[in-house]
Amino acid sequence: MEFIRLTRAEVENLQLLFDHLHDALQSVWPGCQVHAFGSIVTGLGIKSSDVDCFIRLPVWLQNPGDTYVAQAKAALMQYPRIFTELFAIKGAKVPIVKFYHVPTQRHCDISFKSPTGVENSKLLAYLLNLDNRVLPLAILIKYWAKVHKLTGTNLMPNYALTLLIIFYLQHKAILPPISLLQRNVEHIVDNWNVAFEDVMHVSGNNESLYELLGGFFKYYRDFKYDVFLVCPFLGLPIKRDLFAKGGNVPSEFELYKTNLKRRNCLPLRTNSLICIQDPFDHSRNCSVAMYPRLVNKIMSCISQSAEIYENKKSEIFLWEILSMAIEESPAVSKKRRVRNGVAKFKPNHNIKKAAQTFHKAFMRYKEKERGKNKRNLNNFSHNVTKH
């Protein structure tokens, strides 16, 4: 945890990024505000985490579109020693500007469209700190997913993974359902209630962090994804058919039915292999963009981790799940891919196993020869890579 997590000093140092961003955008939109959200706010930030910011513009401006992204990029380009690698993505569902902040050495994304990311981050931060086991568990699982390249650009969103963790802990009665937190409060943003209150929630669960980590993999290995959707709002699995049919949703989803009737939203898409419903926006499936091959890889990782938990001793469990080779099903791992007219094949498990063995041999050699000439070590590393 100490090795992978952002330190307090590193988080506090990000204030410099926010100040620079605020000062640069003031020249275009006087009175604008910079609101951080995502892992930096929730406490899930690790060493490689990017920074996400929502820019709240003055109220007299219309809903921002592509123009605001282009203007923001132009404003940041005036400070080349502070902001580099600027790239505007105008055609995305949520247009953003990506850049690298030189003083803090952090990548950052800024958006203008909706403050819901800020509100979601407040909720996650509250839930992750309700029990002293929740945040460490979430960071370990997030790191596990990153090591195996399950999360990131065009992969599983970290937000969706965090919702899986929260839902699992609701199943364990360690965290309360979101509906309980919203019972007496309401604050509508973009047609959805984003308010929540602190409630008295006492958990009788005394499982250790090790048991909860292993239990997470077992729970989602056995979860019936084809029948149920993940619903953090109720903290219970909900049958997909209820939302597919539209009018038969549980009574707790009155706001969802109202928004559908008023055409403020589209029906929840339940045709993805995994369906994770947003706790605030009940029409949003947070895993809808996860393509079948990625889902297969995620399920393989979860199943292998669950098997390791059931068969290994506790003192080597974490090492095993972080260093395991991913064994995808033959139907996917041997599937032929054609890209730009060139057929490619994914290396089979025997090749990956041989590469892993070779890597372990090199690491043993590196440890043994640590005190010797660095040039010789680099030459050996180059030869290993070449072979």
Descriptive account of the structure:
- It is a single chain.
- It is globular, with a radius of gyration of 23 Å.
- Helices cover 44% and strands 11% of the residues.
- Strands 1-2-5-4-3 form a 5-stranded mixed beta sheet, with helices on both faces. A two-stranded antiparallel sheet has the order 6-7. A two-stranded antiparallel sheet has the order 8-9.
- It starts with 7 loop residues before the first helix and ends with a helix.
- The chain contains 16 helices and 11 strands.
- The protein is an alpha+beta fold and 387 residues long.
**Helix/strand/pairing category:** alpha+beta
Distance between the termini: 35 Å
Unreliable runs:
330-348
Beta-strand share of residues: 5-15%
Per DSSP, the total helix count is 16
Binned, the helix content reads 40-55%
InterPro entries: MTPAP-like_central (IPR054708), NT_sf (IPR043519)
GO biological process, one term: RNA 3'-end processing
Pfam families: MTPAP-like_central
Protein name: Poly(A) RNA polymerase mitochondrial-like central palm domain-containing protein
Question: Which key phrases capture this entry?
Answer:
single chain, NT_sf, 16 helices, Poly(A) RNA polymerase mitochondrial-like central palm domain-containing protein, 5-stranded mixed beta sheet, alpha+beta, two-stranded antiparallel ribbon, 11 strands, 387 residues, 44% helix
